[in-house]
TrEMBL record:
InterPro entries: Thioredoxin-like_fold (IPR012336), Thioredoxin-like_sf (IPR036249), THIRX-like_proc (IPR005243). It comes from the Bacteria. It comes from Thermacetogenium phaeum. The active site is at C10, C13. This is Redox-active disulfide protein 2. It holds the Pfam family Thioredoxin_3. Residues 1-76 form the Thioredoxin-like fold domain. Keywords: Disulfide bond, Redox-active center.
Amino acid sequence: MEIKVLGTGCAKCKKLEEMVREVVGELGVDADIVKISDLNEILEYDIMMTPGLVVNGEVVCSGRIPKKEEIRKWLQQE
């Protein structure tokens, strides 16, 4: 599974990355977690606000920090 956290490095982006890593650890899934901070790369995902979360190429959330339960649900669906 490939997970991308989109953000320029703000506190919300860092928090999202931390939460994603926690959930991946709790679920024990095999995932590559990549932090994308380059603005041009972020714009390729057509999101209006960061942080953004991309799971296997699909944007599942942007502009807010989701609850851990939401992250867990998205990861379990893959």
